[in-house]
Amino acid sequence: MGYILNIETATKNCSVALAKNGETILCKEMAEQGFSHAEKLHLFIEEIIKEAGITFSDLSAVAVSQGPGSYTGLRIGVSAAKGLCYALEIPLISVDTLTVLANQLQIEKGIIIPMIDARRMEVYSAIFNVKKEMIREVQAEILTDSSFSDIDDAVYFVGDSNEKAKKILSKSNFNFVDTIFYPSAQEMSAISYRKFLDNSFEDVAYFEPYYLKDFMLQTKST
């Protein structure tokens, strides 16, 4: 097969990776400047294609992070991916953003809970086992001191919500991984390759990001 271009723009990290047979060949990303996706995404794509010494016609598919995450970031990434797929007549692959984030951590025992910051104490989260299998689906939720309290195994939180989560999640089995903040296209490579082999493709015309903004309204008592 040819190459798969992976695009991750669900958070502050504007990330693009080129992969072949599930292995990342090149990756360019930037999170330090905040949401710079509109300025950087197409530049990163062009630079990766040029540096790899290939052309766009060598691509077999484009994979994009489907969300949840930033509305604007997701729209930019999905629009770019759909445009490439339409122009090149190649398949579009979508990858769950929290799965991408969870795949950055390697553990031997316990549970991985990736969380993406929304606002205030709101997060997007899911729960994964050591095999990176999702054992609780993606949810939009408000963190409280009882969140995840029913889990007795060692829990490893990853993502950009850790700083605020530490203030209220205090069980002794909770661990906060402070070196992993944002999902990266590098971790999309193996996932998108498996979906390519399974012919798990999206409809380029109708595919939409997974926004998942469904928080309950919080009101102050009077």
Salient structural properties:
single chain; 222 residues; alpha/beta; five-stranded mixed sheet; 5 helices; 10 strands; globular; disordered C terminus
Model description:
The chain is an alpha/beta fold and 222 residues long. The chain has helices at 37-52, 71-88, 97-102, 162-165, 188-197; strands at 3-8, 14-20, 23-30, 59-65, 92-95, 111-117, 122-128, 134-142, 155-159, 174-176. A hairpin with a 5-residue loop joins strand 1 (3-8) and strand 2 (14-20). It is globular. The model is unreliable at 215-222 (pLDDT under 50).
Question: Topology of this protein?
Answer:
Blueprint: E1 3-8, E2 14-20, E3 23-30, H1 37-52, E4 59-65, H2 71-88, E5 92-95, H3 97-102, E6 111-117, E7 122-128, E8 134-142, E9 155-159, H4 162-165, E10 174-176, H5 188-197
Parallel strand pairs: 1-4, 4-5, 6-9, 9-10
Antiparallel strand pairs: 1-2, 2-3, 6-7, 7-8
Spatial strand order of the main sheet: 3-2-1-4-5
Described by its quaternary structure, the protein is: single chain
The count of helical stretches stands at 5
**Biggest beta sheet attributes:** 5 strands, mixed
Low-confidence stretches: 215-222
Proportion of strand residues: 25-35%
Summed over residues and divided by their number, the pLDDT gives a mean of 93
Rg on CA atoms, Å: 18 Å
Termini separation comes to: 63 Å
Overall 3D form: globular
Global structural class = alpha/beta
Helix content: 10-25%
Counted beta strands: 10
Q: N-to-C SSE series?
A: EEEHEHEHEEEEHEH
